[in-house]
Design brief:
The complex is a heterodimer. Helices cover 77% and strands 0% of the residues of chain A. Chain A has 15 helices and no strands. Chain B has helices spanning 2-22, 58-73, 87-99, 113-122, 155-170, 184-204, 224-236, 248-262, 297-309, 339-353, and strands at 44-47, 77-80, 104-108, 127-131, 148-153, 172-179, 207-217, 239-245, 268-273, 281-282, 286-287, 289-295, 318-321, 328-329. The chains are: A mainly alpha, B alpha/beta. Chains A and B meet through helix 1, helix 2, helix 13 and helix 14 of A and helix 1, strand 2, helix 3 and helix 4 of B.
């Protein structure tokens, strides 16, 4: 066997695929241990996500917030920042979008752009604070973004019952009007009543935009330079602090947009007392996607498929849901340990050379 | 860049088809196509609310009822756990159950109301039971279709009985209330409990007080540590017993009470939803659970499955479980209550059943 990787991108793909294979194998071991047939189990997993147009649409919709949260984490990584706050930024973004949807009574063409803008601003503001703390006072962003998660959690917890309380559910906001929803009739009909919505197109547009910014613009070059070596970048005359804040804000904006796709797209109201799990899954998505925009897109689609198909697999084979969750988590965990696999490949290669 | 994409895409497709192909081997372990055998053979599914299946209250109660019915009536049962708590998450799992042949679906919790509202139209060949809420559209307009039953409980009556029992047993002192989320079923427990204390004070000469600062809604059903902290604060301020209607938050309260009881201090907890006596056991035999305000979710779930089996499913209706049909109450055995107290509580229960005592499900001038 000859393993040689000329270009970085090809190596990344190989690593990601190997990670997925290892994940699926580890999951298979678990399924076998519970006394079920792993191949049948995986068949149901993929069927559950793909077997009908409606389910395929649901899979795409499930992936949508993951694409954006993964993109958010990946983007921050590029600048050497670890954004654990995607969950809080999503929540705030989603909250701002919902607030716009519930407050303004406008036709769809006006309210949707406003709600989307609000989500982007909300997420960006929530990430701006850790950004400025990092840039000015060197407060580590891991700590401050986690704290911002909880501030966001309690802000929503207080604000939703206070201002947007549901008529009969105290733990949720009122449902947004149809005009302010990213769900549109033709798309739902196209996918036989799936909850797929315009969020998917927003997510794909964001991927294209971020790929462009990172690879083709001066800003992207500067951001990456700061990520590779902060001091070298500073020496080269790049304003490091400005770039840190900017990077966090863009990452926050992406997560905020992800919040909009989650709360005014997939769902139609916002709930209190939960941080969106998609925010944390974004970290795994970014790792599997090797921190590249396109990689995040594909990794998110894969995770979306897992989440979407899980229930059907669970319903068809005799395992308790907790085990099904464990299997999915195992696949994700292994998929996210691409760093280890990279090392393994390196070792294999050097051994080959040594002989 | 493009090459890389195609590579990933192709291999993903390859893996998918590979796996899908392998799966076509017949799988005897699961799902027979049962439809033809008999109209009475059906599979019962359940979708859990937020929280785990062993939450010692809501999910667990429902699942136990479903399981028991499955065993007694020879039906296949299964529960699914949604990935999130949005309507889309719930609908997805309902769809999964439906597609896998589970056409009798039980959903515990008010959060399912919009999901069931849609599901009852979308899956007309299935039957639905929703507990603690009616199916409603997103504007709150309720509609129970002929394939759905909505179940409610008179939590205030249950809280009332627990309040009377607590007052009679402790005779004097401070008590408190810790709720989970501030939602109608939890609120009704609280209001009923306060009315029960008042009733005992007025009719049995007890001197139990509830201070407004000792009536707290923690805000979640999950934060065990917060439940422990709140309880510690209350016990420190002289509260003798806490009524914890708060899911896992209540488990924190129970932990705190156990720690204090072990140290020889007086600390009681009134359990909720199910008989929580066993949760409160310390030092082998003693328990800090004074009594529990129960709503018999398991009985309700069981009854609904049985009704379907017997062809008596009352689709389109809202059914309330209260003191009259023994759907609520305190446990039959309360080792921590004296026999005098249990007889008096039984008398009070009779009076509620006869309509002589009216317990209000509204806040009125009560605390919170």
């Amino acid at each position: 066997m000859k393993l040689q990787f000329g270009k970085g991108s090809f190596k990344n793909v190989a690593v990601a695929l190997l990670a997925i294979v290892f994940g699926l194998l580890a999951g298979a071991v678990l399924i076998t241990l519970t006394g079920s047939d792993p191949l049948a189990g995986y068949a149901y997993l993929f069927k559950g996500g793909l077997m009908s147009l409606e389910r395929f649409g649901d899979t795409l919709a499930t992936s949508t917030p993951l694409i954006l949260s993964g993109l958010s984490v990946a983007f921050a990584f590029k600048t050497g920042l670890f954004n654990i706050g995607a969950a809080g930024q999503m929540l705030m973004g989603g909250f701002c979008a919902t607030a716009v949807g519930l407050t303004l009574d406008l036709p769809s063409v006006m309210i949707l752009p406003l709600a989307i803008m609000a989500s982007i601003v909300g997420g960006a503001v929530w990430a701006f604070i850790p950004g400025i703390l990092k840039a000015r006072f060197n407060v580590h962003e891991v700590v401050s973004t986690i704290m911002m998660n909880w501030i966001g959690y309690w802000v929503v917890y207080y604000a939703v019952p206070g201002y947007f309380k549901g008529e009969f559910l105290e733990t949720e906001s009122r449902a947004i009007p149809d005009a302010a929803s990213l769900k549109v009739g033709w798309l739902s009909q196209l996918f036989n009543g799936s909850f797929i919505n315009l969020g998917l197109f927003l997510a794909i547009a964001a991927v294209v935009l971020i790929a462009f910014i990172l690879n083709k613009t001066v800003i992207g070059y500067e951001l990456k330079a700061v990520g590779y070596n902060r001091f070298a970048a500073e020496y080269a005359g790049i304003n490091v602090n400005r770039n840190i804040v900017l990077s966090m804000m863009i990452a926050g904006a992406l997560a905020g947009l992800g919040g909009a796709t989650l709360y005014i797209g997939n769902a139609s109201n916002i709930q209190i007392g939960v941080l969106p799990a998609q925010g944390f899954d974004g970290i795994a998505v970014a790792l599997l996607g090797a921190n590249s925009p396109w990689g995040s897109l594909l990794a998110a689609l894969f995770f979306g498929l897992l989440y979407s198909g899980k229930g059907f697999m669970n319903a068809m084979i005799q395992i308790p849901p907790e085990i099904a969750d464990t299997i999915i988590a195992t696949i994700i965990y292994f998929a996210a340990t691409s760093v280890l696999i990279e090392r393994l490949l390196k070792r294999l290669r050097s051994r080959k050379r040594g002989q | 860049m493009f090459k890389k994409l195609t590579a990933i895409f192709m291999s993903t497709v390859l893996t998918a088809t590979l796996l899908a192909g392998c799966g076509s081997t017949p799988n005897p372990g699961s799902s027979g196509s049962g439809g033809a055998s008999a109209a009475t053979a059906f599979k019962v599914g359940m979708v859990t609310d937020s929280g785990s299946i062993d939450d010692k209250s809501f999910n667990q109660g429902t699942w136990e009822g479903v399981q028991k019915a499955g065993k007694d009536l020879g039906l296949e049962t299964k529960y699914l756990k949604p990935t999130g708590t949005t309507e889309a998450d719930y609908l997805k799992e309902i769809g999964n159950l439906h597609d896998a042949g589970y056409k009798f679906i039980v959903t515990p919790g008010f959060k399912f109301s919009t999901a069931i509202y849609q599901a009852q139209d979308k899956y007309q060949d299935s039957k639905f039971v929703i507990i603690d809420a009616s199916p409603a559209d997103k504007n709150g307009k309720e509609s129970i279709k002929p394939n759905t039953v909505a179940i409610f409980f008179a939590e205030h009556e249950s809280g009332f009985l627990a309040g009377v029992a607590t007052a009679l047993q402790l005779k004097e002192g401070d008590v408190g209330f810790i709720g989970g989320m501030e939602i109608p079923p939890v609120q009704r427990y609280n209001w009923g409990f306060q009315q029960g204390i008042k009733y005992a004070n007025a009719n049995f000469g007890t001197k139990i007080t509830i201070k407004p600062e000792n009536v707290v809604y923690q805000g979640t059903f999950t934060e065990i540590a917060a439940g422990q902290q709140l309880a510690a604060h209350m016990y420190d301020s002289g509260v003798k017993a806490i009524f914890a209607a708060a899911g896992s938050v209540g488990l924190g309260t129970i932990n705190e009470a156990k720690a204090r009881a072990k140290a020889g201090k007086e600390a009681w907890v009134i359990g909720v939803d199910v008989d929580q006596y066993n949760e409160g056991i310390y030092d082998g035999t003693k328990s800090i659970i004074l009594t529990s305000a129960m709503k018999k979710i398991d009985t309700a779930a069981y009854d609904m499955v049985k009704a379907e089996k017997d062809g008596k499913f009352e689709g389109g209706k809202a059914i309330t479980f209260d003191s009259k049909n023994n759907g609520i109450g305190i446990p039959d055995k309360n080792p921590n209550l004296s026999s005098d107290v249990t007889t008096k509580v039984a008398e009070v229960l009779k009076k509620i059943q006869a309509g002589e005592i009216k317990v209000s499900g509204e806040r009125g001038d009560l605390i919170k």
